[in-house]
Write a structure and sequence with these properties.
single chain, 222 residues, mainly alpha, 13 helices, 63% helix
């Protein structure tokens, strides 16, 4: 499949059963709170974030696992929604944190795919993510192998921070919320990861330039 699996149930998330006509404008924390009394309202979060979560998982593990992990992310979120910290109006980091825990269970699959790409220059997972890092030019496609090898060599924690920032577009504070770690730890892991990848790529501008994935961070991590 090329997109997230359909959400469970047939309730129209934008209708009155989901909390009223203003449901699409409600902050995530409000949606979660409402869902404790009206469970169908939780579908609003699926509609908002499932495509992004699915895309992120597919980039890391390929399409074959993306559907199941996306579905499990929202099932888990629904099950533990009473524990959501409503001081955070945006649920996006929370959902990426859940997805990251599920991705972590497939760490060997991810590393194996990266090593295969580094060794052969081709792997099915690469079709999902390589264009995010390397633009469609002959000179930059050659960087896929070294990049994959560099990512595979990172520790799980460093790789997770790097990809949350680069592929999920999370800021430092959001990544810290997703992982349940201090912002300082996010910064140190990101600096370390980028330094290693830069070394592996020889500071290839296809990866280490000041593109949008790292906008606002370049002064500290480039």
């Amino acid at each position: 499949m090329s997109g997230p699996p359909p959400r469970a149930g047939g309730t129209d998330a934008g209708g009155p059963d989901a909390g009223g006509a203003d449901a699409s404008e409600a902050e995530d924390a409000e949606v979660v709170a409402r869902s404790l009394e009206q469970p169908e309202a939780f579908a609003r979060l699926y509609d908002r974030y499932a495509p992004d979560i699915h895309r992120y998982v597919a980039r890391r593990l390929g399409d074959s696992l993306a559907d199941d992990i996306t579905a499990d992310t929202f099932l888990t979120a629904f099950r533990i929604r009473a524990r959501y910290d409503r001081a955070h109006p945006n649920a996006r980091p929370w959902l990426y944190g859940i997805a990251g825990n599920l991705i972590g269970k497939h760490r060997r699959t991810e590393v194996r795919a990266l090593k295969a790409l580094a060794r052969t220059g081709h792997d099915p997972v690469a079709a999902s993510w390589s264009e995010t890092w390397v633009e469609r030019t002959d000179s930059r496609v050659a960087a896929q192998g070294p990049l994959a090898g560099a990512l595979a060599a990172l520790s799980a924690g460093d790789r997770h921070v790097l990809l949350l920032v680069a592929w999920a577009d999370l800021g430092y504070q959001e990544a810290a919320e997703a992982l349940g770690i201090p912002v300082g730890t996010v910064r140190s892991r990101l600096n370390r990861a980028r330094r290693k990848v830069r070394t592996a790529l020889g500071a290839d501008p296809a990866f280490v330039g000041d593109g949008p994935a790292f906008a606002g961070d370049t002064a500290e991590v480039v």
